Amino acid sequence: MRILGIDYGDRHIGLALSDPLGMFAQPLETYILKDRKAENAAYFRRLIQIHEIGRFVLGMPLRMDGTAGTRAEKTREFAKWLEGLTGLPVVFWDERLTTQQATAIMHEQGVKEKDRKSVVNQISASLILQAYLTSMTRE
To answer: What global pTM score does this model have?
Structure first.
């Protein structure tokens, strides 16, 4: 069973995938939400089948003081939709500063500014998922 890490945005969803042992996260892709919900549903069902996903880890966008805002509510709605669609559990994980971390990683790796937008969500999803996986090995 693999775990899918998700960095949810209004239009772009960064995705990362764990290895089969649940030790390491790697970027998968960025999915652009479609206007037709049936297309989105088919996409996530296909991902589950192809990668044998058994759980989702969804970044929860909390404010710096730890409170939830409107972005967090939209994320909860997406989680409810995803759980209802797939029947798989969704675990929320604090995603504060992951976009800044992803940007710093890309800068260090020499990724050109014009290319960063296409992968920043994937790297953020990887950071979210890796933090979750690391916490699981400590238990």
So the answer is: 0.86
